């Protein structure tokens, strides 16, 4: 459930940047005027709009979330410094606090992305451990079957009858031991019940 909530939150934060970047690209002249009025050199309207749009799409798609989160957080912090730095003006103060909240959301996207990468690494490691344990069990079973076969072959070679056994379901099987101490299985007879 937390993964679904994180995906929805990441998508909603990304939506802010996609809409903002698209609006900057649709009205380049007013964006350029706003940038120049803030004291920055001209020519940043299109790169800023493209950055916001592409970074927002990457964030929404879950592509390079950690890198995009850091870049967007730096971008939003820069907008606080250059555009919303008059904290005595209530409107600018609200805009700065909104940007601080967006930075907080980006930090959460960064952290949650790291958490799931760590979770997937632990899951891969656990799967590897289980596969190794299963392989060891198969090797042990193969060695046990080989030892039984060798014991039967030795018994036949010495002209004795090999202890016969029939492997069946565990409910209908009892275990005895052969002359060399290895367990052998035999089918229960009707009078053994």
Task: Describe what you observe in this structure.
The chain has helices at residues 2-26, 28-37, 45-61, 65-83, 90-157; strands at residues 173-177, 183-187. The protein has five helices and two strands. It folds into two domains: 2-114, no CATH class; 165-193, no CATH class. With 193 residues, the protein is mainly alpha-helical.
Stretches where pLDDT falls below 50 for ≥5 residues? Answer: none
Q: Count the beta strands.
A: 2
Secondary-structure element series: HHHHHEE
The main pleated sheet reads as: 2 strands, antiparallel
Q: Tally the helices.
A: 5
Helix proportion? over 70%
- How is the largest sheet built, in terms of strand order? 1-2
Radius of gyration: 35 Å
- What is the CA–CA distance across the termini? 53 Å
Number of domains: 2
Estimate what percentage of residues fall within beta strands: 5-15%
Give the overall form: rod-shaped
> Mean pLDDT across all residues, rounded?
82
* Class per helix and strand makeup: mainly alpha
Topology (elements, then pairings):
Layout: H1 2-26, H2 28-37, H3 45-61, H4 65-83, H5 90-157, E1 173-177, E2 183-187
Antiparallel strand pairs: 1-2
Helix pairs in contact: 1-3, 1-5, 3-4, 4-5
What's the quick description here?
It contains 5 helices and 2 strands, in the order H-H-H-H-H-E-E. With 193 residues, it is mainly α.
């Amino acid at each position: 459930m937390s993964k679904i909530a994180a995906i929805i939150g990441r998508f909603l934060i990304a939506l802010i940047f996609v809409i903002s970047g698209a609006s900057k690209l649709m009205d380049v002249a007013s964006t350029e005027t706003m940038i120049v009025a803030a004291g920055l050199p001209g020519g940043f309207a299109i790169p800023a709009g493209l950055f916001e749009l592409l970074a927002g799409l990457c964030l929404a798609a879950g592509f390079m979330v950690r890198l995009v989160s850091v870049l967007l957080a730096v971008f939003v912090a820069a907008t606080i410094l250059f555009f919303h730095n008059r904290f005595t003006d209530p409107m600018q103060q609200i805009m700065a606090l909104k940007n601080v909240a967006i930075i907080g959301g980006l930090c959460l996207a960064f952290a949650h992305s790291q958490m799931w990468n760590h979770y997937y690494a632990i899951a891969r490691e656990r799967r590897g451990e289980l596969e190794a344990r299963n392989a060891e069990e198969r090797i042990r079973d193969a060695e046990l079957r080989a030892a039984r076969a060798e014991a039967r072959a030795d018994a036949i070679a010495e002209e004795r009858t090999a202890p016969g056994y029939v492997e069946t379901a565990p409910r209908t099987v009892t275990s005895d031991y052969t002359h060399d101490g290895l367990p052998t299985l035999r089918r229960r007879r009707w009078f053994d019940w």
